[in-house]
Design brief:
By secondary structure, this protein is an alpha/beta fold. The protein contains 19 helices and 13 strands. The chain has 2 domains: about 1-205 and about 380-409, Rossmann fold, CATH 3.40.50.2000; about 205-375, Rossmann fold (3-Layer(aba) Sandwich). The longest helix is centred in the middle third of the chain and has 22 residues, at about 150-175. The two termini are about 35 Å apart. Helix 6 runs antiparallel to helix 7.
Length: about 400
């Protein structure tokens, strides 16, 4: 088939959750079909990666998005009933290129990754539309509103309401809707009872994260958090852990280090480096050496949607994970059972201390976690089911889908 694939950020390099999922989808579709990629790049350096993506795609179109101008252009929409997310990702140049491609080439499918990109094909009626919401973003904005103060809470609440209406329209237009968890699927069904929604989880490349040279080291105890540090839920998580949980851990283990690993740490996160025992790395080309330094990975989220790729990657690297219930939501039951869970700072600290003080147990726990992740989140199986649904959007979900969804209830 001929497939037009739209995504909001260039899916290379696959170094964070949204890019990892899009890259693997693109690779799987391109293995069996002709794919034309249309995407945006909000980091200028990412423009250079279009040549790599041409190894997979028949045609690649990357348009640069100036993040600052995009924010400014979205502001006037505060006076309308339209979500700010949509104009943020609007590009007249990309719209013209998509329109020309649809006119000149007979596509069999349009695949939209992230609801905001559906704006480029909303007027198309005669080509089946597959939409991967990944997560229901309107619900994420609702969570933001609950943990912030005015005026941001009002803006976030408005965005949740407006984006929810937009998501409903896109879901009803789509032949299939993909999300990462059964929780997200339930949210889609609340949006639109008629939408055909499938749970397509994220996967993890266990082999790339479990080589002998990155096996967890002994020595100075360390706890790690990985993620893009400009992302609000990640900021909230590390600030909570550094200020409320780490001091409790240090009462029992004074020399423990909390590694905060990820690009674009804002002022709030950078200030954490002034706390004894906290190390803020900023951008690193490879997170594996930092996973190797640590004995425990943490995911202390108060805001979360979908599946946390950072949890799967830590488990794939053989690390035990300590998390809040929010961080674990959506995970397959057999994987979630391996996570040490705590709700309060005291409970989280107790779980971390218990693992750090018993390295044999921590190592055994980590290895079993890796084994379970390798089975439950195998990219090949996940992608095979996804491609089959793209090829046959009218068929019912497979038995494996149904079993997996039941395991998440």
């Amino acid at each position: 088939m001929k497939i037009l694939y739209l995504c909001h950020r260039i899916p290379y390099p696959p170094d964070k959750g949204e890019k990892i999922r899009a890259f693997h989808q693109l690779r799987a579709l391109a293995a069996r079909h002709e794919v034309d990629l249309f995407t945006l790049a909000d980091v200028p350096a990412d423009m250079a990666h279009s040549s790599t993506l041409r190894e997979y795609c028949r045609h690649v179109t990357v348009v640069q998005l100036n993040a600052r101008l995009a924010r400014l252009s979205a502001l006037p929409f505060l006076l309308t009933n339209k979500p700010l997310t949509v104009p943020y990702f609007r590009s007249a140049e990309l719209q013209a290129k998509v329109r020309n491609a649809i006119r000149e080439r007979s596509y069999d499918r349009i695949f939209v990754y992230c609801s905001a990109m559906a704006q480029y094909v909303e007027s198309v009626e005669d080509i089946p539309l597959i939409t991967d919401l990944v997560d229901v973003d309107s619900d994420k904005w609702r969570q933001y509103a609950e943990v912030t103060s005015f005026p941001f809470s009002a803006i976030y609440r408005r965005e949740a309401r407006c984006l929810r209406a937009y998501e409903r329209r896109i879901c009803e237009k789509s032949a299939r809707v993909f999300v990462t968890t059964e929780r997200e699927a339930a949210l889609v069904r609340q949006l639109s009872e008629t939408s055909r929604v499938d749970v397509i989880p994220v996967g993890v490349d266990v082999d790339s994260l479990s080589t002998p040279e990155i096996s967890p080291q002994t020595g100075k105890p360390a706890v790690v958090f990985t993620g893009v540090m400009s992302y609000f839920p990640n900021q909230e998580a590390v600030c909570f852990f550094a200020r409320q949980v780490l001091p409790l851990i240090r009462r029992s283990i004074p020399d423990v280090t909390f590694l905060i690993v990820g690009r674009n740490p804002g002022r709030k996160v950078q200030e954490l480096s002034g706390i004894e025992g906290v190390e803020v790395t900023g951008y690193v080309p490879d997170v594996r050496p930092f996973l190797a330094r640590a004995q425990v990975s943490v995911a202390p989220f108060s805001i979360a949607a979908g599946i946390q790729t950072k949890i799967l990657e830590a488990m794939a690297a053989g690390l035990p994970v300590v998390a809040t219930p929010k961080g674990c939501q959506g995970l397959a039951r057999e994987v979630a059972d391996m996570i040490e869970m705590g709700r309060t700072p005291e409970e989280l600290a107790q779980k971390v201390v218990g693992l750090l003080e018993n390295p044999v147990r921590a190592r055994s726990h980590g290895m079993e976690s890796r084994r379970r992740v390798a089975v439950a989140y195998n990219w090949d199986r996940i992608l095979r089911e996804m491609v089959e649904l793209v090829e046959n959007p009218g068929v019912a979900a497979s038995g494996a889908d149904i079993v997996r969804a039941a395991a998440r209830n």
